[in-house]
Amino acid sequence: MSAKHVLPGVLLLTLAVARSAVAQPVLPPPEAPPPMGAGPSTLGVPTVTPLGSSPAATALGGVAPVSPAAQSWVETSPCLCCGPIGRNGPIGSEFFLATGPSIPIGGATLPQQLNVGWMTEWGARALFFNRANDAAWTAKVAINYVYNDGSGKAPVFQYFGLPVRIRDLHRWSYTWGVGRDWFLLGTARPDGSGGPNVRFGADTGGRWGSSHVNLNLIINDPLAISDFLRRQDVFGAYYMGAHLDFEVPMGSWVWTGGLRAEYNFHFTEILPGGGNNLQDVNILLSTGFRY
C-alpha cells in the first residue's frame, strides 16, 4: 500500500480520537483522606455567615439594621393605656426606720381599754423611677412592733365570766405594700445626682402577725398571786399611709428623713365574745438611706 493511501487514514483516525477526548467530562482528583487525629470532617456542613458580615450589615458599617416594628416595640409600651412600662428609668433601693405614737380609735372594747402606744417599723423599699426621674412606683416589705399599755380607768369587762381590765397589748407583724412617690423639686436619682429634693408619697398594703394581751384580774387578792391572765392570737391588718420626706445627697447615697401618717384596721379575735375591732392612727418620724 502506498504512503499516499495510508496518510489520509492516519489523519482521520487522529481527529476522531481527539474529538472523543474533548467530549469526556473532566473529573476532579480524588480527595485525600484526613490525617489521623484530625477533627470531624466538614464536608456537607453549610457555611455560617458571621454576624454583621451580611451585605446589609456591611453597608451600614457592620451593624445589622433593626426593623421598624422591633424598634417601635423597644421604644414604646405594648400597653398604650398605662404609658411606658419597664426599662424606663433607674431602680433605687432604700432602707428605713420609722417610729412614733400609735393612737387607738373606735368604740369597741379593745380600743377603749388601751392608752396611746408606740410603733416601730424597720423595712426596705424599692423605687422604680420613670424616664423623667421625677416619680417612682414603690414596693416595700417591713417588720413592725406596736405596744399599748392598758388604761386603769377603763370599764371592767368580762373574760370568761371573770372581771378584767387590759394591762397591755403587744403586736408583731410582717408588712408589705405598694405605692407611688412624687419628687416635688424635679429630677431625682437613686444616687442623689439630681441634688436635694422633697418627696411626697402614698401607699397601701397589709400586715400579718401575732399579738398577745395581758389582763389584770379584778378580784380581792391581797397577796396578788392570781391577778394576771394572758391570751394570744394571730391577726391581719389593712393600712393606708402617706409620707413627706426630705432628701439630701451624701456622695454615692442619699439620706432621707421626714414624717409619715397611717391608718390601720386590725382583724383579730384576741378577746372572747367580740369587741375586737381595733383601729389605729400612727404618726411616725422616719429616717433612712437610698442608693
Give structural notes:
This protein has about 290 residues and is mainly beta. It has a domain at about 90-290: Porin. About 15% of the residues lie in helices and about 45% in strands. The protein has 4 helices and 9 strands. The longest helix is centred in the N-terminal third of the chain and has 21 residues, at about 5-25. The termini are far apart. The model has no long low-confidence stretch (mean pLDDT about 80).
SSE layout and pairings?
Blueprint: H1 3-23, H2 55-59, H3 68-75, E1 91-105, H4 109-112, E2 117-129, E3 135-149, E4 157-159, E5 162-183, E6 197-217, E7 228-249, E8 254-267, E9 278-290
Antiparallel strand pairs: 1-2, 1-9, 2-3, 3-5, 4-5, 5-6, 6-7, 7-8, 8-9
Summarize this entry quickly.
This protein has 4 helices and 9 strands. With 291 residues, the protein is mostly beta strands. The protein has a domain at 92-290: Beta Barrel (Porin), CATH 2.40.160.20.
What percentage of amino acids are in beta strands?
over 45%
Order of helices and strands: HHHEHEEEEEEEE
Radius of gyration: 42 Å
Could you tell me how far the N terminus lies from the C terminus, measured between alpha carbons in angstroms?
A: 115 Å
CATH topology of the domain at 92-290: Porin
Structural category: mainly beta
Give the strand order, joined by hyphens, for the main sheet.
1-2-3-5-6-7-8-9
CATH 2nd-level architecture of the domain at 92-290: Beta Barrel
Indicate the percent of residues in helices. Answer: 10-25%
Q: Report low-confidence residues grouped into runs of 5 or more.
A: none
